[in-house]
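User: Sequence for Putative sulfide--quinone oxidoreductase below. Tokens please.
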Amino acid sequence: MSAHTIDHKVAIIGGGNAGISLAARLRRAGMTDIGIIEPAETHYYQPLWTLVGGGRAPASESARSEASVMPQGVGWIKDRAEGVDPDAQTVSTSSGTTIHYDHLVVCPGIQLDWDSVSGMAESIDTPQVSSNYRYDLAPKTWQMIQKMRSGTAVFTMPSGPIKCAGAPQKIAYLAADYWREQGVLDAIRVVLVLPTPGMFGVPVFAEELERVVARYGIEVRKNSEVTAVDPDGRSVTITDNSAGTTDELPYDLLHVVPRQSAPDWIKASPIADPENPAGYVQIDKNTLRHNRFDNIFALGDAGSSPNSKTGAAIRKQAPVVAENLQASIAGRPLTAQYGGYASCPLTTSRKTMLLAEFDYTMQPAPSIPLIDTTRERRDMWFLKRRGLPALYWNAILTGRA
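Assistant: Structure tokens for Putative sulfide--quinone oxidoreductase:
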């Protein structure tokens, strides 16, 4: 191998939740010669950012050094993947390095397409606009919520798959509950813009969320999406996709969520799904192996499997990929199956949470016995605030859960 070529039996693109937890599982199974391609020096527990934006957690609690979560015995390639050649079995990076692999796992996460909505990228630099989808902006969200005493607050959700699809709603509920505590909710018009026909894709959870928005008096624009932001005029254009109409809505506070898609380099690569404009890695939804390249797997947000893009999904996908990857290396049939499990911990107030668990059937798939998680609960709040972060840092990333 040349000085600019690295060889690994298993190469993993991405050192986030998916890449680290998978590598840890493989190491615990005795596998050696694993390389993770990850440029970031900081590892984030992103689900906490909603609580940061709602004033219920410090941002610093969501961040640790990437070195502290990297499994022992795994080669860390501090570089950014920029291309895959599945025929040559190589990954190219931004520094010009080539990584040759026997098996490849693709899990770089997905990108935030700020420029896909006119004016959105510019708006986040103004005092009235923020987004919990960025670590540096989540504290700003809380500052904006605290300052607001009257006017119109707009919370948006884009069409298409996004990571943690409940997050656009959660911050609206946290804000509304804070304004209720402060006695100013009646002076604030709260508007939630959703691209979906219902509050949630699973009816039992949608019904509970209808009660939540009614309690706060939130105006929900369903089948709708913000298609333009005017930061100078402080207004958004809302398109009703069912009626084919648009209207302008002024705002005093705006929480935006950008459209999201696979990283651009994946879209342009041979491993992308050619029939999906979002460019996700084309995989079998159950085995998580690539449909055309038998030595490539994907998990997490960048895969084409039609599950909700959540950390809980990754927790169920990682053992499937670990088992099937080992079977593929040994030349055995792939027997592990992922059923589409995902969960969305929906904070419905500053002290209650609704734990929505479901799978490919879009029916409830509860994992906690003897507790009705189809209703918002106080005990579920402690799970969200304390239990899940502890599980993430101490068990998921170490391949134990």
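Residues 311-330 form the longest helix (20 residues).
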